[in-house]
Design goal:
By secondary structure, the protein is α/β, with parallel strands linked by helices. The longest helix has 21 residues. It is 41% helix and 16% strand. The chain has a domain of 200 residues: Rossmann fold (3-Layer(aba) Sandwich), CATH 3.40.50.
Length: 330
């Protein structure tokens, strides 16, 4: 089957491309003219030049394709222009779904995020049915993904578009060339640049398991349903301990209260604005999100799709090995 993949040059998207190729599918990858295509080097992929935020450039990109995997998204935890991020992620969904509808694509997998899901207050993991609203979304990235998923649901309900939604948790692994915010955490920890931690938690999943989950959702998922593609719930202290052990350095020992870190985040952001510098090492939204343990259950995907995930340790090891081999760890 011929499939169009957006975001195929990125971390999760390139893993999805490799998984689909391994399953015997023919891949067309939507790429911008200036995209870094290293993650597609050596793979038999047909490039299609276009920009998700330029509808005119998407004319015909789905022609001849029976399916679409929309993986692309602007994934950052800090930006100078939050309204633009929301417009970008929501507009991209609208534009590519309209292109798919015009081409009569028969099956679509949309990559959302656990960022759109609710987090229970009683300590149990969240899932696809945990109540949540836009007001619960902390930061522009989560807000943009929430609005984007709402846009997808509108296409499903109003236009009967055949979309299955997947919600990956926190992917970690090789080929995170950017790197993503999660990859930056791994690099900093493995380089000994995270001497302290706050009390928070994440659900860690190997990026290749997320890619497997995409294929399973494509093959077995029910239209209109969403599936959490997660792995292992871990406290940040244990995450950093696992990474530093692989890197062969001492683990951070000091826990900082959120209230002590928040003023530092405000100062770091202010300095980034004033100097027009790069993303600050600590962000206000990041600290606000860290007050919650972002734990999630993948039981629905396991039950309905046959989804499985490997231990988080494997994801950390593959990530550190790749970052070291590619010069990210000096």
């Amino acid at each position: 089957m011929k499939i169009l993949v957006t975001g195929g040059t990125g971390f999760v998207g390139s893993a999805v491309v490799r998984r689909l190729l391994h399953a015997g599918h023919e891949i067309r990858a939507l790429v911008r003219p200036d995209s870094d295509r290293r993650n597609l080097d050596g793979f038999d992929v047909e490039p299609a030049i276009g920009d998700l935020n330029d509808p005119s450039s998407l004319t015909g990109v789905c022609a001849g394709c029976e399916a679409l995997f929309h993986v692309a998204a602007d994934y950052r935890l800090w930006t100078r222009d939050g309204a633009k991020m929301i417009d970008t992620n929501v507009g991209a969904v609208r534009n590519i779904m309209e292109a798919a509808m015009a081409a009569d694509v028969s099956r679509i997998v949309y990559t959302s995020s656990v960022a759109t899901l609710g987090i229970p207050t009683n300590g149990v993991p969240g899932d696809e049915e945990t109540p949540v609203s836009f007001d619960d979304m902390i930061g522009f990235y989560k807000q943009s993904k929430f609005r984007a998923e709402q846009e997808v649901r509108k296409f499903i309900s109003e236009h009967k578009l055949p979309v299955v939604i997947v919600n990956p948790s926190t992917p970690i692994g090789p080929r995170d060339i950017k790197p993503t915010p999660t990859g930056q955490m791994v690099v900093r920890a493995a380089a000994g640049k995270m001497p302290a931690f706050v009390d928070t938690g994440l659900n860690i999943v190997h990026v290749d398991d997320v890619a497997d989950g995409h294929l399973l959702a494509f093959e077995k998922g029910k239209i209109g349903e969403r599936y959490v593609l997660g792995g292992e719930d871990m406290n940040l202290r244990d995450i950093l301990g696992a990474i530093t052990k692989i890197a062969g350095i001492a683990a951070p020992k000091f826990r900082l209260p959120h209230g002590a870190v928040l003023p530092i985040a405000y100062l770091a952001q202010a300095w980034a604005y004033v100097t027009d510098g790069k993303e600050p090492f600590a962000t206000v939204d990041g600290i606000r999100m860290a007050k919650k343990h972002m734990f999630f259950s993948s039981e629905k995907a396991k039950r309905d799709l046959g989804y499985q995930s490997r231990p988080a340790q494997d994801a950390f090891a593959d990530a550190v090995d790749w970052f070291r081999a590619n010069g990210y760890l000096k």
